[in-house]
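Thread title: Can someone regenerate the structure for this chain?

I was given the following input by a collaborator and told the matching C-alpha cells would be attached. They weren't. Posting the sequence so someone can regenerate them.
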Amino acid sequence: MNISKENLDTLNAVIKIDIQEVDYREKVDKSLENIRKNANVPGFRKGMVPAGVIKKQYGVSVLAEEVNKLLQSELDKYIQTENLAMFGQPLPKVQENIDWENARDFSFEFEVGLIPEVKLNLEGAAKKVTSYRIKVSPEYIEDHIASLAKRFGKITDVEKVEKASDVVVKIEAEGENGELFQPGAYKQGIVVVSDIKNAKNFVGKKVGDVVTASPKDFKSTTRLSQFIGKSADECENFDAPLHLTIEKISNVEPHALDKELFEKVYGPGSVETEEAFRDKIRGEAEAAFENETNSQLLNDTVDYLIENTKFDLPLDFLKRWVMVSGEKQLGEEEAAKEVESSEKGLRYQLIEAQILMDNDAKVDYTQIIERAKSLIRMQMAQFGQTDMKDEDLDPIVERILKNREEVGRIQSMIIREKMLDIFKTKIPYKTKEVTLDEFVKAIAKKKA
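Best answer:
Regenerated them for you:
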C-alpha cells in the first residue's frame, strides 16, 4: 500500500491511496470462509458449500466491503499521523468504472480542504476598539436607593393619579395605520409619574382611562427600554405613540433609610450603616456595568479581528462538502448560500483557535465540571441555599453534563472569558469613561 499527498495549492490537496492485492487478500479470504461455514445453499449441507460457489456468489461484494474498510482505516491513520489540519472530511473523487471482477490493485483519490495559516495582529485592535468604563454617578445611586425605598415602602391604592403615584398600565403602541400592537416583551408596565416628562397627562386619571404618551416622555432610552422590554439600541429609533391603559393606581410611602431597609434588601447583619449601604449599591452597579462593558469589548474586538485578519478559505471544497455532509443532500445553490451564511462564524472559529493555541489556553473537562458547580451554587443561593457541599452537587452536575448542549454552553462561556483575558493582556486599549446613557448611545450608534 502506498499513500501520498499532492498539494494543489495552499488550500487544496489530493490524497492518493494505492491498494495492492496483498493488502486485502487475507481479510477477503477470511470473510468468504466465514460465509461458507454459515451459508445455506440448496443442494449442499451447511458448511460444505464449495469455496468456488461462495466466491462466485459473494466474492465481488466482499472484496468491495473489505477494500472500503481498509481504505477508511488507512486514510484515518494517515490524517492523524501527518497531523493534517483540514476542514470536515476528505471527499472521495468519483470513479465510475471500478473493475471489481478482474482488478487486483486499486487506486483511490480524496479531495482535502486545508485550514489556512492565520496571522494575527491583536495590537492593531487598540487603534479601533474602545474599552468603556461606566462611572456610577451619585444620581444613579440616589435613584437606586429611591427605588429600593419604594419597593419596600407602604403601598396604598388610590382612585386618581397624583404626581407621586405609581401607575400599572397595559402597554400598547400605535402603528402607521392606527392599529395597536405590543411594542416589546412586556404587556404591562409601571409608570412612575414623577419620572415622566409630561406627568400632567396622567394626573387626575382613573382606572380604565387611556393615556397617550410619547417615547420621548421617558427621561432616557434606558428607562424606555426597561418599561417596554425592548433593547436600548432599538429604543433609540422607536417613536410610535404609546397607548397606556390604566389598570391600577397606588401611592407608595417610601421606606425610611434605616437598618430595617438594609436588612430587607441584603439580609440580617450584611449592612450596618447608610455609608455601607451606598457602598454596597455602588459595588453591585460597578460589577454589573463591568459585565456589560466587558461583553461589548469582547464583541468589538472579535468584529475587528474578523474584518482585519485576512486569509483565504477553500470555498469551492467547502461547498462540495456541505452538499453531501448533512442528513439531506443539498444542491449547488443551497450549498453556496449555506457556506456564505456561515463564513463569518467559520473565520472566527479559526481566529479563536489560533489565539487560544498561541497563548496555550485550553478548556478541559475539569474546568467544565467546576464551572457547572459554580453556576449551580449561584442558582441555589438565590433560593437561600448557600452551603451546598460537593457531594450534594455531584449528582446534579452529572445530570447536567449528560446534555451536550449544556456542556457546549459552559465551554463557550469559559472560552469567552479566556479570550477576554487574553485581549486585555495583549491589547493596549484606550479606556473611555462614560455615563450609562452615553454607553448605550455609543453602542446604538455602532449598530446603526
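The mean pLDDT is 90.
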